[in-house]
Amino acid sequence: MSMRKYPDTLNDIIAKSGLNLNSICKLSGVSNTYLTKLGRGLINHPGKDKIASILLALNYRIADINSVLAEYDYQPLNKHDIPAILNNNRKRKIEGPLMPHYDRLYFELMLVVFEQIGGTKIVVKDVPSGVYQPYMLYMMKEFQLELDGEAERFLYELTGQVVRERLALFKENCRKGHKIITYMCRECLDETMDRTINKIVGKKDMGRLQLYARYFANAVSCAIKFPDQHQLRVTERCSMFEFLIQDADGRKPSLNFTGSSKHSFNNPYDQHNLEGFSTSAPAMLNLFKVEIDMCEAAIIPGSSPQELRSYVSDKFGKWKVGHFFDEAMDELMSTPGLRLF
Q1: At what angle do helices 48-57 and 21-28 cross, to 10 degrees?
Q2: How many CB atoms lie under 10 A from the CB of residue 140?
Q3: Whole-angstrom Cα Rg for the chain
Q4: Beta strand pairing status for 121-125 and 180-185?
């Protein structure tokens, strides 16, 4: 009885991507040896996790990955496939030229890779870094559209495990003493907080509001307790875009560019698929380091973590919900060591 001959769908997809095998290896975490054997026809039936990781690296939606898996006689992705996918993700490398990422899942997968690098993290954003967010608040984000309920459920499950891994790595980096420095434009911070709190209060979603207060309490309490390690810097200058540099003081820093950010938030089309790119190219990093120098020069004089605490408390108080933030701060400040909601 002859063995089944499977289609060359995965090889065709790789060929059409325009990327060489070395790039696919770095993007997906699947080894170059495996990809070479696949390309030479020595692997007729690639592993389910290999197919999923390669297609995730190429920004395929879950439903589209399931369609390719079906051609290789695999069932749709389910929770039992997640450990192998995450294991491949840990082997990814940020090296060389631009690596685009288009949707939130790919973005989250890439952020785990950045967190693994460790070292000093520099963030330019309108609010404190998302790593300070409680898990449940993080999971309330918009998810990219999927074609069916099965794919949607898997996307949520995989994203949840990716986020948990990232937050655990962040806490471990904190325990190791790694720095995180965040530059926030004062006008952007003002607008984002007012818009977000007003929106949540308007929906009378007190659970989400409490999580949002805990997010800010996480960041501000860390800045007060560990001022050298957790630095929140408010600037008079807006960079007009968001990015992070991981291992900024190290020998091989990596850049994650998120995209542009405007002061106006009246666009009704809230879902954005194009998330930016990642790179370790020195020329690109040098451009962004100049941006950081300009943010550093624009820090508002005399601003301190305690003043930021008062500012955030006033913001919540403006909407008559100041107790959410104040109670969260009191709880976190009652312990001297690292504690995050």
Answers
A1: 100
A2: 14
A3: 22
A4: parallel
Q: Are 245 and 288 in contact (CB under 8 A)?
A: yes
Q: Say which residues have a Cβ less than 8 Å from residue 61's Cβ, sequence separation at least 6.
A: 103, 144, 145, 146, 147, 151
Kind plus residue range of the DSSP H or E element containing 152: helix 149-175
> Are 295 and 122 in contact, with CB atoms under 8 Å apart?
no
Select from 145, 138, 131, 173 the least CA-distant residue to 159.
Answer: 138
| Residues 213 and 312: beta-carbon distance below 8 Å | no
Distance CA 261, CA 124 (A): 11
CATH architecture of 1-93: Orthogonal Bundle (1.10)
Question: Cα 337 from chain centroid?
Answer: 26
Closest residue by Cα to residue 108 from 84, 128, 92, 125: 92
Instruction: Determine the Cα–Cα distance for residues 10 and 246; give it in Å rounded to an integer.
Output: 32
Q: Two tokens at 112?
A: 């785990």
Q: Which residue do the tokens 């120098």 mark?
A: 293
Domain boundaries, the chain: 1-93, 95-333
pTM above 0.85, yes or no: yes
Instruction: Return the amino acid letter for 28.
Output: S
Query: 205 vs 135, 197, 209, 331, CA distance in Å?
Result: 17, 10, 6, 22
Distance (Å, rounded) from C-alpha 282 to C-alpha 278? 12
Please list the pLDDT of the chain residue by residue as tens digits (341 residues). 447 888 899 999 999 998 899 999 999 999 999 999 999 999 999 999 999 999 999 989 999 999 999 999 999 999 999 999 999 999 999 987 777 776 778 888 999 999 999 999 999 999 999 999 999 999 998 777 777 889 999 999 999 999 999 999 999 999 999 999 999 999 999 999 999 999 999 999 999 999 999 999 999 999 999 999 999 999 999 988 899 999 999 998 999 998 765 544 455 444 455 568 899 999 999 999 999 999 999 999 988 999 999 999 999 999 999 999 999 999 999 999 999 99
In the block, residue with structure tokens 């099965």? 150
